[in-house]
Amino acid sequence: MNPVRIAPSVISADFSYLRGDLARVEQGGPDMFHVDIMDGHFVPNITFGPAMVKTIKSLTKLPLDVHLMLSKPRKFVTAFVEAGAANITFHVECDDKILTALDEVRNYDCKVGLAVKPKTPLSAIKEYLGHLDRVLVMTVEPGFGGQKFMPDMMAKVELAAAWRNEGGFKYDIEVDGGLDNYTIWPAVRAGAEVIVAGTSIFSQADAAQAIKDLRENARLALRHLEPGYVPDDPED
Ligand code: DX5
Ligand code: ZN
Question: Which residue from 26, 161, 192, 218 has the highest number of Cβ atoms inside 10 Å of its Cβ?
Answer without folding.
Answer: 192
